[in-house]
Amino acid sequence: MMYLVLGVAIGVLMPNQSAINNRLRHAVSTPWVMAAISFLVGTACLLLLTWTTVGTVGLDPGHLSAQPWWIWSGGVFGVIGMTTNVLLLPVIGALYSTVLNLTAQVITTLIIDHFGLFDVDRYPADAWRLLGASIVMLAAVLAVVAGRSRVQADRPAPSRGWYLAGLGIGVCFGLQVAVNGQLTLVLGSAIHSAFVSFLVGTIVLITLVVLTRSPLRLRVPDGETHNPWWMWLGGVLGALYVTGVAFLSPLIGSAVTVVVVQVGLIAGALLVDQFGLLSAPKRAVRPLQVIGLLLMITGVVVMNAPKILA
Questions:
Q1: What is the mean pLDDT of residues 29-47?
Q2: CA angle at residue 84 from 79 to 85, to 5 degrees?
Q3: Given a cut of 90, is residue 280 above it in pLDDT?
Q4: pLDDT by residue (tens digit) across 71-83?
Q5: Average pLDDT of 151-167?
Q6: pTM for this prediction
Q7: What is the average per-residue pLDDT within 18-42?
Q8: Quick check: 118 and 180 in contact, CB under 8 A?
Q9: Contact predicate 255/110, CB 8 Å
Q10: Which parts pass through the membrane (predicted)?
Q11: Cα-Cα-Cα-Cα dihedral of 227, 199, 79, 120, to 10°?
Q12: What CA–CA distances, in Å, run from 208 to 25, 182, 193, 197?
């Protein structure tokens, strides 16, 4: 139960990270620069934490040469998912992006757990897990749909490729959870695993910034007098998220990790909306959104029913 609560707490951080990174995005030239800064800050924090807790940030070539190539790909999956989402949101909107992302994440991790892909411990997709996951996905759709302000009927319909990209984002994040979980077992530390993942992601993003020739300039958005200090902290929250997920995945499985984090994500988003945290506009939480959140919690309980009833 403690691990489930931890997963929810990790998820609660994510809407705050999104709000922080959104503010940073308005102060820099391109989304790629924003993402690179966020990853760089997270990498620096994880470097210090790894050095403090592990005693080194180095890797033993002899030990690690026997590992499969994909063990280092968690950061790449994270970057692909995040950068694709940056492009996707303006096209299909947050509603479809969230629903497609969640659906693909849950299905991907259920498959990974069921077949033991990426050398993870097997968690067969029995009736309890399938029922619980279905409840979570439907409840998340309810919570997200209930919160939309209006349907933009005048917006041209995006091509199907964009919706497939939305599913692809969820697949990437699901793969990242499983891969980083295994890297944690290899390195013996979730913090060290998260550092490696962030370092790989940072290298990829800096390369992307260079290739796109994104200008490196800082500005104060119109209507504001200064940039807040907290806009640099998105990478810190991202580091906490990746570390927490890397810690939980080997313990409770990739699918349950994704599901409990998503419960926290929806709860955190409702808090951000209700109280207008971090300069986000206030939006009153609707009863259907609360019902959706409660149903998501029910789904988590159902997925873990065999352990709870044992």
A1: 92
A2: 100
A3: no
A4: 999 999 999 988 8
A5: 72
A6: 0.86
A7: 88
A8: no
A9: yes
A10: 35-57, 69-96, 127-149, 161-179, 185-211, 232-252, 258-278, 290-309
A11: -130
A12: 16, 27, 23, 17
Helix 234-252 × helix 254-275 angle, to 10° = 150
Write the CA distances from 20 to 160, 230, 231, 264, 272, integer angstroms. 30, 7, 5, 17, 11
Interatomic CA distance for residues 204 and 163, integer angstroms:
25
Nearest to 269 by CA among 98, 149, 107, 89: 98
* pLDDT class of 148 with cuts at 50, 70, 90: low
pLDDT in tens, 48-72: 999 999 998 888 777 677 889 999 9
Q: Considering just the CA atoms, what is the radius of gyration of the chain in Å?
A: 19
Is the pLDDT confidence value at 264 over 80?
Answer: yes
Distance between CA 280 and CA 49 in Å, rounded?
30
Closest CA to 177 of 273, 112, 85: 112
Contact 115, 185 (CB under 8 A): no
Residue 272 has pLDDT above 60, yes or no: yes
Taking CA atoms, 211 is separated from 28, 29, 32, 34, in Å, by 17, 15, 11, 15
Q: Report d(CA 213, CA 3) in Å as an integer.
A: 43
pLDDT at 245 over 70: yes
Residue 157, amino acid = A
Q: Model confidence at 310, in pLDDT bands (50, 70, 90)?
A: low
